[in-house]
Amino acid sequence: MSDMGGEVARYWRHPALPEVDLLRARFVTHRFARHTHPGYTIGVIEAGVDEFEHRGGVERAGPGSVAVVNPDVVHTGHAGTPEGWTYRVIYPSVAVVEGIAAELGAPRGTPVFPDAVLDDPSTARLLSALHRAGEAGDALAVSTMLRTALAHLLTRHARHVPGGDGSVAMPPIVREARDLLHARLIDPPSLEKLAEEVGTRPFPLLRAFRTTVGLPPHAYLNQVRVRAARALLDEGLRPAEVAGRTGFADQAHLTRHFKRTVGVPPGAYQSAAQAGRRGR
C-alpha cells in the first residue's frame, strides 16, 4: 500500500487477470481530477461516501453501494464526508466485459450501465469477493470469481447498445484534432494551430471538443499522456524517463497528473505492477 499522509492506496494487476486493474484505497483529502478510463470503473464502497461528478450531475455512493462508470465517461472523485471513503475498485477492459456478455448470450454490442450508483448487496458481495481474491487467491479462483461477479452485474444492471454506448457522435474536426494530439504527445500544437490544421477556428473547435469528449483539448492530452506513462512504467522505465517520453515537464509534473487520475504516484504504481508480474 502507498501511504500518502494518512491516506493509503494500492493499484495492481493480478497475473490471472491481464486486462483487469485493481485499486484498494482510503482517501480523505485526495481529489481525482476530471478524467476518463478506456475501460469500466466498478467500485464497492466499504466505508464513508464517494462523491463524484458524472454526466452533468453529482453522484453519492455510500457504504455497501456499487459505483459504476462506463468507458470514456468523464468523472471526478472526492470524499462526500469529512471522514473520507474506503473502497475497492475493479477496472476491467471493454474486451473483458464484452466477452463475458457474449458468453451470457447478450446481443452484440457494448454493455452500458445506465445507473452510476447501484444499491445491490448481492452484487457488492460478489465484487468484493473477487477483489479480495485478487489480493490473495489463486489463478483459478480469481478468474472464476471475475466471471461470476461481472456476469451477475451484467445480468442485473446492464443494457446493450449495438455499435457503442449512445454517446454524442464525434464530429470530423474533433476526430482529426484528437488524432493530432495523439501523434503530437510531446510537442502539441497551440489551440490556434490545432484549429487551423483541422480547418476551423479555435472557439468552435474548443466547444465541439468539450461537448463530444467531455474535456478541453489540453486536459484530454494529459489523459493520453498518463495512459502512455502507465504503459512505459509497465515496461520498467524509471518515472523520470517516462516523464520526458510522454510530454510532462518533469517527474513532479508527471506525478501530479498521474496521482490525480490513477490514485497513486507513478513509483507506487510501478512497484505494485512489478510485484503482480512476479505473482506476489
UniProtKB/TrEMBL annotation:
<keyword id="KW-0805">Transcription regulation</keyword>
<dbReference type="GO" id="GO:0043565">
    <property type="term" value="F:sequence-specific DNA binding"/>
</dbReference>
<feature type="domain" description="HTH araC/xylS-type">
    <location>
        <begin position="175"/>
        <end position="272"/>
    </location>
</feature>
<protein>
    <submittedName>
        <fullName>AraC family transcriptional regulator</fullName>
    </submittedName>
</protein>
<dbReference type="InterPro" id="IPR018060">
    <property type="entry name" value="HTH_AraC"/>
</dbReference>
<dbReference type="GO" id="GO:0003700">
    <property type="term" value="F:DNA-binding transcription factor activity"/>
</dbReference>
<dbReference type="InterPro" id="IPR003313">
    <property type="entry name" value="AraC-bd"/>
</dbReference>
<dbReference type="Pfam" id="PF02311">
    <property type="entry name" value="AraC_binding"/>
</dbReference>
<keyword id="KW-0238">DNA-binding</keyword>
<keyword id="KW-0804">Transcription</keyword>
<dbReference type="InterPro" id="IPR037923">
    <property type="entry name" value="HTH-like"/>
</dbReference>
<dbReference type="InterPro" id="IPR009057">
    <property type="entry name" value="Homeodomain-like_sf"/>
</dbReference>
<dbReference type="Pfam" id="PF12833">
    <property type="entry name" value="HTH_18"/>
</dbReference>
<dbReference type="InterPro" id="IPR050204">
    <property type="entry name" value="AraC_XylS_family_regulators"/>
</dbReference>
